[in-house]
């Protein structure tokens, strides 16, 4: 059995200083580009050439470690129409180019591996699967069909698919992999007592509910070996009544640390309660910038596993303060790098650097929610960079909404290829 990963103490905790993982892998600075959905897959769900362009640009901008947008492990379960899939049917050549570009300028690039579970829009899938046959709520049930509960053989098959995707990620040259265990996707659905009401070994007690996440990690480890880093993105909580709590989350963190995971990224929220983009965040938390700092401080007291804190950071000062506190080892940034790919270089060069992000709205809250404007607007910026263009901060929300509506309509009437 692998030994628990041990954090290697760095000589400095400065934002620009390197960090060494327990397996000896060196991350050149403390800045970590958290995953954002790019929607840059081909019709066959291979990477477009633009993904290499995009991640090469981020590497040039000074990021220490980039995590890709969610790469699906099952082409029959796509969270979005243009998802990339990494499986036995994939064309590996564009993945190799993507990995190579992301490693320029001494950067690292890890693949985020994901299964959406029931978070599949109904124009993509008529019958999604999940831990239990429980619908999404909060109005989302209109756009997402009620899932079918997975059988145990299907659960084991999905675990094996995660392992295969990780094996292929290593083969094509990515620096590591991350399991997406947050934001209401399948791993998160198994962890939540609100969404997982099974009566077998995969549900009920927290020990049973975390069995799926641990099984995915162990299956991946068996394929990639002890020297290839495996991380997980985990919710501090899902902020839903009867859902995954902070207490649950800390127990899962301890179990993953004991199993030997190399890196844990802390986030929070789901489609139903999107705390990861600042939904219902207290003013006092916004002033500190880090949405989940209180939680990660508690986690640091429990484990030595390297931690990443993502959500809300805008300034060098707040990032350095979080590092100085010892609560986190790496700082997760995302939307700021979609507006300014040189954000990491600027942060390291200037201790007073700060970037504000404007509030996005069409002026009609219902339309903003339907279009998932807080996510899609940034996808449009990624698409610009993928074409070699600079981001456009003045991009109209109405233009984004209209184009998203047209695209969704196109996919709604297109026969599913996967």
Folded structure, characterized:
With 418 residues, the protein is of the alpha/beta class. The chain has one domain (19-357): Aldolase class I (TIM Barrel, Alpha-Beta Barrel). Helix content is 37%, strand content 11%. It has an 8-stranded parallel beta barrel with strand order 3-4-6-9-10-11-12-13, surrounded by 6 helices. A two-stranded antiparallel ribbon has the order 1-2. Strands 7-8 form a two-stranded parallel sheet. Residues 1-10, 271-288 and 413-418 have low confidence and may be disordered.
Please summarize the sheet with the most strands.
Answer: 8 strands, parallel, barrel
Q: State the share of residues found in helices, binned by percent.
A: 25-40%
* SSE pattern, N- to C-terminal: EEEHEEHEEEHEHHHEHEHHEHEHHHHH
- Give a count of the beta strands, DSSP E runs of length 2 or more: 13
Q: Kindly identify the CATH topology.
A: TIM Barrel
State which percent range the strand residues make up: 5-15%
CATH class: Alpha Beta
Overall average residue pLDDT: 89
Question: What's the alpha carbon Rg, rounded to whole Å?
Answer: 20 Å
Shape: globular
Helical stretch tally: 15
